[in-house]
Amino acid sequence: MDSKTLSSSIAKFSAKFxxxxxxxxxxxxxxxxxxxxxxxxxxxCEGPAHEEILQSLGFPxxxxxxSSFSSMSSQLKSIKGITLNVANRVYIQDGGYKLNSALxxxxxxxxxxxxxxxxxxSGKAAQExxxxxxxxxxxxxxxxxxxxxxxxxxRLVLVNALYFKGTWxxxxxxxxxxxxxxxxxxxxxxxxxxxxxxEEFFYGESKDLGVQYLKMQYEGEExxxxxxxxxxxxxxxxxxxxxxxxxxxxxxxxxxxxxxxxVTIPKFKIETEIDLMEVLPKLGIKTIFEPADSGLxxxxxxxxxxxxxxxxxxxxxxxxxxxxxxxxxxxxVVRTRRSLNPPPLIFAATREALWCVFIKGQMAxxxxxxxxxxxxxxxx
Length: 380
Hints:
Layout: H1 3-19, E1 27-29, H2 31-42, H3 48-57, H4 62-77, E2 83-93, H5 101-109, E3 114-118, H6 125-136, E4 154-167, E5 178-185, E6 188-206, E7 211-217, E8 223-230, H7 236-244, H8 249-253, E9 257-266, E10 268-275, H9 276-282, E11 306-319, E12 323-336, E13 345-348, E14 354-359, E15 362-368, E16 376-378
Parallel strand pairs: 2-3, 9-13
Antiparallel strand pairs: 1-15, 2-4, 4-12, 5-6, 6-7, 6-9, 6-16, 7-8, 8-14, 10-11, 11-12, 14-15
Helix pairs in contact: 1-7, 2-3
Family: Belongs to the serpin family.
Protein name: Serpin domain-containing protein
Subcellular location: Secreted
């Protein structure tokens, strides 16, 4: 699978993932972080479970996973101009348990994952895992696992931690940030800090999707923020559904042109916790959660029947005048069964939009921002 095909698969999975998240409030997620965990699980299972993950992620077979994630891991290590940490770790129950030899090789060579034995029944395992996640996300992701997430029945915990911080190639000036009305629905606004600039940005429109696009690059020009702004105040849900149904967002992104744009966008911060055991079955990934027959037969050198007993992701994003910071961590717990000078175009994100962070062409984070309903004002 080449880089372009991989980017398309990740973008489609991201849209489907985002379509299943809470639509009533601000939310941020890293489908890419979830993909790392799911791809590793795919290499450790067979039967219906295996097919479900491959189909959901858009991979034809295991070798496509190996080549794609190995290549992506190498690319992300060499990125310029931003801070990026991508860390994977497999925790294995102490006491003679070992990863299947083929999966161990894939974990190390494909995902650059660290392996560590741990006593899940000690009562301190969750704390140790949480400290590792904090260290890899600049302390942004805390308490990923609760103390009761793991116990003596736990055999494996797979963790991906993803941290990003970038400075805008063209920063916003703080003196141009003012409180302005943001529409939470067609007739109601709330005043929030909005940043403004008249600069050369990549811009485009899609009549088919009913949106404006704005792409702002980070220093190094290997990462960018794409804002997908619906024409209608209440149009974001329809836009995300079209993306989830297969609309080719990346084809549109390739047509964007650099032009003078009068930009107004919100300054915001979002933190979200996502129960993957609720989201993934809606994407067709169900069997790995079944205690009786999960298909996880290639995970351990053991005859014990395993299943995924917990899946959670915590994510964070902050967008301000200097740039953006984002972090996410996903975990899967596996237990044994028991023109010349034209006037600038206007891009005013005064309504709910989709915010996408691309790193080396891969969609790493997605967010939708809706301010809290405080200090609401009804437009007359």
